[in-house]
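Lab manual, section 2.4: Encoding a predicted structure.

Procedure: take the sequence of the chain (161 residues), apply the prediction step described in section 2.3, and record the output as structure tokens. A sample record is shown.
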Amino acid sequence: MHDEVDELVDAWARERPDLDLGPVEVFSRISRLSRHLDLARRRAFAAHHIEPWEFDVLAALRRAGAPYELSPGRLLRETLVTSGTMTNRVDRLNSRGLVDRLPDPNDRRGVLVRLTREGKAAVDGAFEALLTAEAEIVAGLPEEERARLADLLRTLMGPFG
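Recorded output:
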């Protein structure tokens, strides 16, 4: 099977035969796949009226398990955003009725962010839609190749923590 990355690599090899183009073969495909995955995520989430950033916060709360609440600091670590960004996101999700802010019983000055029933329904529906979209993308790979690909990508992610 020949794809657009092969064409790109062939052109570079013709122009710069002195370079090892192996990384381009891998990362150009990852980059293009990332764009397709981003579009699939956006479609899955839009069907449930949430944005990708909203899914990230709601999914962190959902993964925490009942009662689906985390401190803002924990949400920062889960979503890798700044505290100012998280405050804005929680404010917006709260105004939509997807999360509540509650006093932290272990810290008089602290708060907890809790997923509401509406937030749980939204994130569950969006996650199911995302899984369906992603299953369609990998449908052409036999299970053992999917497992091998996951292992290879895990190895590739290693240096990034």
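Check your result against the sample. The helical segments are 4-15, 22-46, 52-63, 72-79, 83-95, 117-138, 143-157.
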